[in-house]
Structures are given as structure tokens and as C-alpha cells.
Design brief:
- It is a single chain.
- By secondary structure, the protein is an alpha/beta fold.
- The protein is built from three helices and five strands.
- It has a domain of 72 residues: Nucleotidyltransferase, domain 5, CATH 3.30.420.270.
- It has a five-stranded mixed beta sheet.
- Helix 2 packs parallel to helix 3.
- The longest helix has 27 residues.
Length: 140
């Protein structure tokens, strides 16, 4: 029985043609990209200036309405009556239609007191209302 001798396979050669194609494609891509980026830097844009600034419609900040344990109403730290609350909220709603109001109630507040304040907010025309609750402060 005669065995054939295995001849060692030749070392695989690196194909240069596909690698050169890829390098040229990358080179073309970066040159074209650089040209477009250069044109963007050359663009001179001057923004026109206004004589007067228009009034912004940005909200004035947080409007916080607290309802105390016994039904009192506190608007941003000042105690108010329901009529005063309605008047102030109408003024805010007229100037800032999308103004948000945060309505907070004490843990032991009657639900009806919260509803009364919510009615005042709705009468003022404010639709953006968030609810929160207050806890009793620990005795010092």
C-alpha cells in the first residue's frame, strides 16, 4: 500500500486589490465630507436685532396653594380668603394661560375644603393643576 506524501500547503497570500479598493473608497468619503464641512464654516449668518423685546408668555414660577388643617387657604405663603384667591388666580390666568398651580392639602383637611379651593382654581380658568399633600411637622 502506497501512501501519498502530503505536500505542505503554501502560505496564503494577502489579496491587495480588495484592500486598495476599500482604502480608496474611504479616502473619497473623507475628502467629500471634509468639503461639505468646510462650506458650513464659511457660511456667514448675521441675526437681525429687534428694537424692543416682546413680552414673554412664560409662567411666573410655581403657584402653590396650601389648604390648612382647618380649611384656611395659603397662597404662596400668604393667607387669603376664597374671594381673594379667585381674584389673584384670575389675574394670573389672564397673563399666563398655561400657568401651573400646585394644590397641597394637610393630611387631616376635610375633602370638601380641597374641593372648594379646586372650584376657585377652575373658576379662574386655570387647567394645569397638580396635587400634593402636607404632613404634620414633628414637634420641636
Amino acid at each position: 500500500m502506497k501512501f501519498r506524501e502530503r505536500q505542505p500547503e503554501g502560505v496564503a497570500e494577502l489579496e491587495l486589490a480588495p484592500m486598495i479598493d476599500v482604502v480608496f473608497l474611504l479616502l473619497i468619503f473623507f475628502i467629500v465630507s471634509w468639503q461639505f464641512a468646510r462650506f458650513e464654516e464659511d457660511m456667514d449668518v448675521s441675526v437681525p436685532a429687534a428694537e424692543e423685546k416682546s413680552q414673554s408668555d412664560e409662567p411666573v414660577g410655581e403657584i402653590i396653594v396650601n389648604v390648612t388643617k382647618y380649611g384656611g387657604i395659603v397662597l404662596n405663603g400668604a393667607e387669603v380668603t376664597p374671594a381673594d384667591l379667585l381674584e389673584k388666580l384670575k389675574l394670573i390666568a389672564a397673563n399666563y394661560p398655561s400657568q401651573a398651580v400646585i394644590l397641597r392639602g394637610h393630611v387631616n383637611t376635610d375633602f370638601q375644603d380641597i374641593i372648594n379651593v379646586l372650584d376657585q382654581v377652575k373658576k379662574a380658568g386655570i387647567w394645569n393643576v397638580a396635587f400634593a399633600s402636607m404632613k404634620d411637622r414633628p414637634a420641636d
